[in-house]
Amino acid sequence: MKPDLFQAPDYYNLDDLLTEEHKMVRDAAREWVKRDVSPIIEQAAQDAKFPKSIIKGLAEIGAFGPYIPEEYGGAGLDQIAYGLIMQEIERGDSGVRSTASVQSSLVMYPIYKYGSEEQKKKYLPKLASGEFMGCFGLTEPDHGSNPSGMVTNFKDKGDHYLLNGAKLWISNSPFADIAVVWAKNEEGRIHGLIVERGMEGFSTPETHNKWSLRASATGELIFDNVKIPKENLLPNKSGLGAPLGCLDSARFGIAWGAIGAAMDCYDTALRYSKERVQFGKPIAGFQLQQKKLAEMITEITKAQLLAWRLGVLRNEGKATSAQISMAKRNNVDMALKIAREARQVLGAMGITGDYSIMRHMMNLESVITYEGTHDIHLLITGMDITGISAFS
Ligand code: TGC
Ligand code: FAD
């Protein structure tokens, strides 16, 4: 891959809306991505290998539990700082951001929000430092968009629970030390359970042949009569609202992260178009290329404003799940469209691994599907504004 010359676009002076702490956190993440992610990420994606070497750096920039209080090892930051970290990481690669999203919002968040004090003390500091890595098991082979139909279940056996079932498409599963798993009890009520690697009957086969998120490890979670100690049940919330609450936090991070991928594609296309000469002048001088670039920066700016406002609402505890859905849907779609346009600006060079655009484009095909598909988020908005569910 060519040297990382990224310059962040800020067309509406959004930096003026950020605090000094926001900028400090953002710049540290940006610097780390340039130094430790950009030089290795293309090869990792080509090899379809999660680069474990980045775990330490992710912990150091506060990407594991940015908003978890410091007493549990988190960085104690606000939601905008969390969003900015996700933006910078995804500027490097969506798969790297996935690892951070899962660890923070889908593993640390449920333990922090729904866990006992003992669970918080036992797991959160180790997850924040990267000593433990986690994954989140909601999706099943036959239940993706409709998680309430899940069949993974546990039975009360007196001094322990017995867990059976399977989860599919689980980020980080092949190397995770713990899994937060959603399963039904004998009454059909959904609960979260902490499953630890090494428990008998628990396996995590890797899913291969992905053309997307190749630098992120994806796999299954298989439970064959796994004995779960009773103290591993998350005691403070049950029902589908518990996992969906975690998704709110992760989807918010994705709404910011997608901006990072879009900014990288735009910046790369802008630079290339000024350097590439055809018909005796830089292609940036042709109206058709300017249209592409002008529309990209317009869409990025709108997405930045949406994410920032959502961050303010989250900080005030006022953001609704439907508002988060709108931002996730809009910003990922925006980023994917920009990646496709930006790739064309580079002509043939755009399909090579010398530039990041094609990798972003393929990654975003997963991002538009996971954490609720593009269409599911539209239906969430539809339900919110009409009061009528069109899901079933
Ligand atoms: P529905 O009847 O609407 O709701 C059931 C209960 O949940 C409550 N609720 C929420 N609570 C918190 N946050 C939200 N976002 C919530 N949305 C709904 C709701 O109030 C209700 O509570 P209660 O007390 O009345 O029971 O549920 P439904 O079965 O009709 O489904 C609704 C639907 C389709 C929107 C939902 O299930 C959905 O979002 N489906 C998409 C599934 C999804 O996003 N899966 C993601 C898996 S994890 C993942 O992809 C990680 S990728 C990680 C990475 O690598 O970055
Ligand atoms: P389906 O639900 O089968 O949907 C197929 C199509 O039908 C979609 O276009 C969908 O929008 C549409 N559709 C479904 N229902 C309706 C409806 N009511 N109305 C209209 N259209 C509808 N899950 C986890 O639990 N943990 C993870 O860590 C995780 N990581 C992932 C990593 C990757 C790389 C990927 C690709 C997925 C990951 N997922 C994870 C799973 C992800 O959340 C699901 O893929 C997603 O929720 C969609 O489920 P599905 O793939 O089964 O699609």
From TrEMBL:
Matches recorded under InterPro entries:
Acyl-CoA_Oxase/DH_mid-dom, Acyl-CoA_Oxase/DH_mid-dom_sf, AcylCo_DH-like_C, AcylCo_DH/oxidase_C, AcylCoA_DH/ox_N, AcylCoA_DH/ox_N_sf, AcylCoA_DH/oxidase_NM_dom_sf, Glutaryl-CoA_DH_mitochondrial
Keyword field: FAD, Flavoprotein, Oxidoreductase, Transit peptide
Query: Required cofactors, per record?
Result: FAD
- Look up the signal peptide feature and give its range: none
Tell me the ranges covered by the Acyl-CoA dehydrogenase/oxidase N-terminal domain, including all copies: 19-131
Outline the extent of the Acyl-CoA oxidase/dehydrogenase middle domain.
135-226
List GO molecular-function terms, semicolon-separated.
fatty-acyl-CoA binding; flavin adenine dinucleotide binding; glutaryl-CoA dehydrogenase activity
- Please give the biological process terms from Gene Ontology that the record holds: fatty acid beta-oxidation using acyl-CoA dehydrogenase; fatty-acyl-CoA biosynthetic process
Could you tell me which Gene3D superfamilies the record lists for this protein?
Acyl-CoA dehydrogenase/oxidase, N-terminal domain, Butyryl-CoA Dehydrogenase, subunit A, domain 2, Butyryl-CoA Dehydrogenase, subunit A, domain 3
Pfam families per UniProt: Acyl-CoA_dh_1 (PF00441), Acyl-CoA_dh_M (PF02770), Acyl-CoA_dh_N (PF02771)
Looking at the record, the residues that make up the Acyl-CoA dehydrogenase/oxidase C-terminal domain are: 238-383
Q: Which family does it belong to?
A: Belongs to the acyl-CoA dehydrogenase family.
Q: What is this protein called?
A: Acyl-CoA dehydrogenase
Q: Which organism is it from?
A: Gillisia hiemivivida
